[in-house]
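_Full entry_
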Amino acid sequence: MDESKITERGRRTRQRIIEATGEQILASGIGGTTLDDVRAATLTSKSQLFHYFPGGKAELVREVAGWEGKQLFEAQEPFIHDLGSWESWEQWRSGLVHYYISRGRWACPIGSLATQAAMTDPDLERVIADSMRAWRELLAEGVRRMRTAGLVDDSADPVTVATVILAAIQGGLVLSQPERAAWPLEAALDSALAPLHAASRPQGAPAA
């Protein structure tokens, strides 16, 4: 839908529907979320729902995926675009844990959607894949900055380290959920960052 043609009030209503649907999906999954659920949660009519999302549930879920990805990246600012020092990596780690745990989000919305996307909508799968690739590249770029700064040596492969970190985030959240505690996620992140620390150079050591 062309958002430029929507009034400010309409944009707020549309965004409210997206956010409510995101919460429904986190709680019940894509398959367990119906348009009737969304209508009840947002007090909107069927005609309103299809006015803002003429493509129905599939369009709405793709919009949720885009919004969740934007929220996730914003939560990692400004550190995700730095990651050129050990301090910035620690600040990024702390901020990410806070984003999930402080909001009571014991699952990654992007990760949760990824596990369901292939079974529901190829277009949604592409949206999720693009978000994951963008996230991985930001982390990989941070590893490259560390190598350029001489803080780690070339044995730290940027894409491999970034991929391990993403896997740790998803797995750590799965383990944190039944515990209702941050420590499994924190432990998973620390383990994922261990190879980066292992490749660190002693201060003042020359590059190989």
Observations:
- The longest helix spans residues 122-148.
